[in-house]
Write a structure and sequence with these properties.
It is built from two helices and no strands. The longest helix has 128 residues. It is elongated, with a radius of gyration of 52 Å. The protein starts with 8 loop residues before the first helix and ends in an 8-residue tail after the last helix.
Length: 157
Amino acid sequence: MDDEVPTTTLELALAWPTRVAREVLLAPWTIQRVRRSLGVLPDELEALRTTLNDTTQVLEETLGPLDGRLENVAGGVNRLDAAVTTLSGDLMGLLGELERLLPELSGMVNGMDGRVERVELVVSQLSDTLLAVAGAVPGVRRAVRGARALPADSTPT
């Protein structure tokens, strides 16, 4: 049988009885399929209802404890938020203290740097003076050269 759609009125008029006859001939099988489906439908609906009830029960059992846990998490988040807010305030105070102390600390470091440079200058001058004195004393040059030539762990005998 041809399933093409007729395009003209004549084709429609000629195709209509054929289509009606086809549907009449297929009616017993169509009715049988409908009866079979209607026979299975109550069992399928009951299985669906049971599955929905089971799903609802599982959700109720799961969501109850989950709600309690979510409330605990919400309380923890609130406490964490309060702690972070407090910490933020403390850090801002610490930042203010550091900004206040920074110029003083910078002055101290610069002062220490000047003192270290002064100590280096004094030690250098003292070294030059000692070398000049040692060079003026007869025999000291030989003793100093001999001490430099010896290994660090050996002693002269």
